[in-house]
Specification:
The chain has 368 residues and is mainly β. It has no helices and 23 strands.
C-alpha cells in the first residue's frame, strides 16, 4: 500500500513505508516535556505510531498547582504515518532536529495549547537499547534526546499560561524500534520469570549547557544500558562521559526518589557531580505509560478521546500505575574545576521488581 511517506526519499527497505519489518511491537514515538522556573507548571506529551497495529495515539498532560490534567486520544491510522494528528492533538515538524510544534484544541474539556519547541543544541543519540529475556527480544530501539526552550500559550479550564522561551525549558525525545505495546502476549515466556525493570533518565538544563544521564539495570544493579553526556548550548559535538553512575534516596514506603546524585567522569578522569533535590512528581500514566485503560497502542476504535484529572496530594504512590514518574528537580552541577552551576530538570523513574542497590526485593515493596 502506497502512502504519503513514499514520496519522500526515506526508504530503507524495498517495501513501502507503511510496512515496518515483521515485529508487531514496532513503534515510532515523540515525547516532550516543559516546565517553568518555579515548577508550578509542568506539561508533557506522548505521541505514538504503531504500524503493525494500524493505530496512532497521543496524550497531553499538565500540572497546574496541585492538579494533573490529562487528555488521551487514539485512532485507526489507516496505514498513513505522515498525518500526525490524533483527534485534538497534533505535531508539526517545523525544522527537523531543531524546531517542532505541538497543538491541543479540545473544546469539550477546555484544554488548549499551541507550543513551539526550539533546540538549545543538536540532539544526542543514546546507545541502542537491546534487551532479551531468555530467547525473547523485549527491547530493540534507538532514541535521540534534545533539550530546548518553549514558546506559545497554554490554557486549562480557566487557567491561562503564557509560555516564554526565556523561562520555559524542557526536553524532547524521539524513539523507534521494538518494545512491548498494545495487548500483552497471550503466551508467557517459558519458564516464567517475575517482572524486573530499573530505569532512571535524567535530562537537565543549565544556563550554558545540558547534561543527560540514563541507566537500565538488572536485579543485581548491573547496568545493561547506561550513558552520560554533556552538550554545550549551540553545540553539535557531544562530550560522552567515559563512565557514569547514580544513587537515589527514596521516600519511605515508595519507589520514588527524594534526592539523587549523578557522577559523570570525563576522558581525562575529571568528575562532574550533579546533586538533585526533587520537588514534585508528574505521573506518567497521564500520557499513557502504565495506564490501565489508555496504555500505548491500545485499540479504542476509529477515534476516541478521554479526559481525567487528579489531586497530586491524594495519589497512592505505591499503586502500580503510579510507579512511573518524571520528578521535577532542582539541580546543582559541580564541575571538575570546582565551578558550580544551578539548573533544573527531571528524574524519571520506573522501578519494578528487585533491585539490590535500592534494597528492593519483591515486585512492589517500598523503601524502608
Amino acid at each position: 500500500m502506497l502512502t504519503k511517506a513514499d514520496d519522500y526519499p526515506i526508504h530503507q527497505t524495498p517495501e513501502p513505508i507503511a510496512y515496518a519489518g515483521t515485529d508487531r511491537n514496532f513503534y515510532d514515538r515523540y515525547f516532550f516535556n516543559g516546565y517553568n522556573p518555579d515548577g508550578s507548571v509542568y506539561f508533557a506529551m506522548a505521541f505514538g505510531v504503531y504500524p503493525h497495529l494500524n493505530i496512532m495515539d497521543a496524550a497531553f498532560s499538565v500540572i497546574l498547582g496541585d492538579t494533573q490534567h490529562s487528555l488521551h486520544a487514539s485512532r485507526i491510522m489507516f496505514m498513513e504515518r505522515m498525518d500526525l494528528t490524533v483527534g485534538p492533538i497534533s505535531i508539526e515538524v517545523i525544522e527537523p532536529l531543531a524546531k517542532l510544534r505541538i497543538r491541543v484544541e479540545d473544546k469539550e474539556n477546555d484544554i488548549h495549547a499551541d507550543l513551539v519547541f526550539s533546540c538549545r543544541s543538536a540532539p544526542i543519540e543514546e546507545p541502542r537499547f537491546h534487551f532479551r529475556r531468555g530467547p525473547r527480544t523485549l527491547f530493540d530501539y534507538t532514541r535521540l534526546t534534545q533539550n530546548g526552550t518553549w514558546e506559545g500559550s497554554l490554557a486549562v479550564k480557566d487557567e491561562k499560561v503564557e509560555v516564554r522561551p526565556d523561562s520555559f525549558l524542557g526536553t524532547r525525545d524521539r524513539s523507534w524500534g521494538v518494545r512491548p505495546i498494545g495487548a500483552g502476549d497471550g503466551q508467557p515466556l517459558a519458564p516464567s520469570e517475575p517482572p524486573q525493570f530499573y530505569w532512571i533518565w535524567v535530562p537537565l538544563n543549565f544556563e550554558d549547557r545540558s547534561t543527560f544521564y540514563h541507566i537500565n539495570a538488572d536485579a543485581s544493579g548491573a547496568p545493561w544500558n547506561e550513558s552520560g553526556t554533556v552538550m554545550m548550548n549551540g553545540g553539535e559535538a557531544e562530550a560522552r562521559a567515559a563512565a557514569s553512575a547514580s544513587r537515589l534516596t527514596f521516600k519511605p514506603g515508595t519507589r520514588h526518589a527524594t534526592h539523587a546524585e549523578v557522577c559523570l567522569t570525563d576522558s581525562d578522569g575529571g568528575v562532574s557531580t550533579i546533586s538533585l533535590e526533587i520537588e514534585k512528581n508528574f505521573y506518567m500514566r497521564g500520557i499513557g505509560y502504565t495506564h490501565p485503560e489508555w496504555g500505548h497502542g491500545a485499540f479504542k476504535g476509529e477515534l476516541a478521546t478521554a479526559y481525567e484529572c487528579w489531586n497530586l496530594n491524594e495519589v497512592d504512590e505505591a499503586a502500580f500505575d503510579s510507579l512511573h514518574v518524571q520528578a521535577l528537580a532542582q539541580a546543582v552541577l559541580t564541575l571538575p574545576d570546582g565551578k558550580v552551576l544551578k539548573g533544573r530538570g527531571i528524574v524519571e523513574q520506573l522501578i519494578i521488581g528487585p533491585h539490590a542497590p535500592s534494597g528492593f526485593v519483591d515486585l512492589l515493596d517500598g523503601a524502608k
